[in-house]
Fold:
Amino acid sequence: MTNTKHPLPAQTAPPLSEATFLILVSLEGQPKHGYAIMKEVEELSRQRVLLSTGTLYSAIKRLLADGWISRLDLPEDSNDGRDRKSYALTSHGRKVLRAETQRLQELVELAVQRAF
Structure:
């Protein structure tokens, strides 16, 4: 298990699953609560990645433990009276997202050079 006090350098993080990558992309713009993350991942993937709540919250738990995201407790939601737990990228999470994006760009460039 990764120690959140001393996270691995972003460049040494293993390749991300598509779901994890899209969760991080979803959080790039602004903090979101779980349902908003699920909907945005669905939209970003053109309905290829459909996260169940169990899958999403398992990923969130891992991302919190790795220090890639943080939890924000926002004030009560006016629609249902419940406090919402929202999640935001940390600076380390942003570095991981940038490193993974760069890795994917390099793979695409290699494929284009070779195959097309």
In short: The helical segments are 18-29, 34-44, 53-66, 91-115. Residues 14-115 form a domain with the Arc Repressor Mutant, subunit A fold (CATH 1.10.10.10). The chain has a mean pLDDT of 88.
